[in-house]
Amino acid sequence: MTYYNKTTQETLDAHQVSMNGLSTEEVRSRQEQYGFNELQEGKRKTIVQLFFEQFKDFLVIILLVAASISGFLGEFESTIVILVVVILNAILGTVQHLKAEKSLDSLKAMAAPIAKVLRNGQVVEIPSREVVVGDILQLDAGDFISADGRVLQSYSLQINESSLTGESLPIEKTTDAINEDEVGIGDQKNMVFSGTFVTNGRGTILITSIGMQTEIGKIANLLDSAKEKKTPLQVSLDHFGKRLAFAIIAICIVIFALDLFRGRELVDSFMFAVSLAVAAIPEALSSIVTIVLAFGTQKMAKENAIVRKLHAVESLGGISVICSDKTGTLTQNKMTVQKVYVDEREISHNELQLNNELQNKLLIMSLLCNDSVTLDEKEIGDPTEVALVNFGEVYGLDELEVRAQFKRIGEVPFDSDRKLMSTVNQFSDKTIMITKGAVDVLLSRIVKIQTAKGVEEATEKQFEQIRNANQSLSEQGLRILAFAYKELSPNQHISMNNEQDFVFVGLVAMMDPPRSESKQAVADCIAAGIKPVMITGDHKITAAAIAKQIGILNDPSEAIEGREIEKLTDEQLKAKVENISVYARVSPEHKIRIVKAWQEKGNIVAMTGDGVNDGPALKQADIGVAMGITGTEVAKDASSMILTDDNFSTIVKAVSNGRSIYNNIKNSIKFLLSGNTGAILVVLFATLFALPAPFAPVHLLFINLLTDSLPAIAIGLEPHNKKVMKDPPRNIKEPLLNKSFTTQVGLEGLLIAAITVIAFQIGLSTGDSVIASTMAFATLCLSRLFHGFSCRSKESIFKIGLFTNKTTWLAFIMGAILLHVVLLVPALMGIFEVAVLTGMQLMTIYGLAFLSFAIIQLCKLIFIRK
Q1: What long-range pairs does 839-844 form, CB within 8 A, spacing at least 24?
Q2: What is the pTM of this model?
């Protein structure tokens, strides 16, 4: 049911309530009927559900099968090692998810408003969740509104509805019924809505909707239609994992068959094939990706970005489009004076001269014809009037001192019909009426104009100059107030009839200005190949002006309004979307369509915002970024990341971190795959040439599960490289295993295999296959440890710095120690099936392992010029 088209009495009757409010019994009854006043959160998954979801990866399933087979055949060591790694990965993923939710809960707890309601004829303060339909709500300046309601009484009541509509200017509320069938939220001037707040005046409200039935709740329901997407890395790893698993299974079947053909025992052949599969599958991959992402989220949290969804870190690095809300995200959500027009010229806000009589008079009048104040850094009043107060403070004028000096002795309050406000102040022996208001309204009441030469009769030429100045300032997206005055007789009674025959003083133009860091953040985005797009519920002129200031808009034709979007089909919007930089007067549905249009063109899209109206689009986007301080609960719940400082430039830092993290993950994968490729090639070589097995199953498990994991994690923690922001966003359609990546993995794997085969052949020349196997195992293990340094970057380690990533040295040292413990401690030699090596054989292993590292570094120095 709609209440904006009903009178106040009809609304009261419909809810069976009086102006004295509800009784305790009625409250209890309505609470049972309507429930609590809160948004229903989707049912969270239990810890057990989250834990078991970590096992959905195809490679993990293969490993679990391998572990089961090993256990069935009595190889319990292999089973235990595999299960430990897989379970560790699942625990890491679960803990990170719970940590993110805990961070979100602490943010939600920051915004729990108290409501003042009439109960049993008395005003009481209650938690907002206990408000019920039919409550009489009392509102004062600064109050947050906790539910939707019909205005019963309004005393200059003004509401900031930017969180719901995107409109930064407050709406003046009335009590009159609106006699229209369909009226948009922004035009329902006799209704108030949950999630908005009072900027000026006071009022009495009858609560008509709570919880999910409010306008906020309706928008929250839109979130159900906006489905979350897998990140590009998740998609790529899924495809890669399946292809890799099938390839490895095929190779293992071939080797198993060849072993049987050559007369090897069935159980031995099968266990070797399973061991090879375990060695070939990078089972540490999921754990390493999780660990790297977790470290990335910790770093970003220190830089004011809480990541709710772990893989969103990687998505940030692939962003090619940022669709940003304007109000409060790119702008300060605070009206600020930008320019004044006085004495027939336009002056910047910071260039006034107080010794200039006319400029000083305009500034004084803006403080006197004004009801706003700032007390203890708290701003109370209409945002446009607060802007005037702050403007005075810039020039050292305190509004309370000025008002005490020129005492107010009368007033005609502002109303939206006449668009004027007047005060009467005592100036020494003169009584002066000061009036401010809309330029077109006040200009028709002007008869004289004050200039530096004095007060003159207004000419048509001067009127034309004022109109031109008003037009010029309006085109810059500024809101303009005109100021005028007239002298009154002492003790003269004033009313609206006195608002005429004024002397014009000047114009004051203001706007919600861009954040100081927005322009640089936008420039950084463009330099990184990211398209910034502004999407706002504000007016087109205002949005375009802000967008032009910060560098989003170059051509006015790139700005359109929501009504134009409605005329376009999805296909037409998709064709046009790349040529539009600013969308004004848009609805939540429009925002989702815009995000989808970019996504269908193959882009990774980020959506930033703080309002409820941003929620659905935040969820639809590949990564939604909500504001932590001013953001609504709906926006935070829908987002992948929350900015605790509400700073747009933090997103640019996050994108840069995301790109570095993705590169680090890719380098870790290259390290794992090239080493595993080397092991497979050595086994294939020995099998094809009927040589003894180069590795025992325990060798493969040791290399893959212990000495590989440490360097891979260290590579994933490579320090941030600022060069990543000079590259364009990566192509999300390009698979992880592209031609270049596969070639590098293959060549580096072939090199590692070659030096391992050489070590194996040297060992075979002694006539002892155990020595040969030991030398192959040690060479492969040590060469992969050296290879960890080579995989840190595309460039040579000598260009990026040998000691810039100390964790790689720690990983190398720990891996080398573990290897030598196995090789040199007699008690372990039997368990790991290794022989005692001579000093010369050890030196051969060291030399061959280092040789592979030296060759790769030499090639990078010669061929990679970046």
Answers
A1: 841/762, 841/763, 841/771, 841/775, 842/778, 844/759, 844/762, 844/775
A2: 0.70
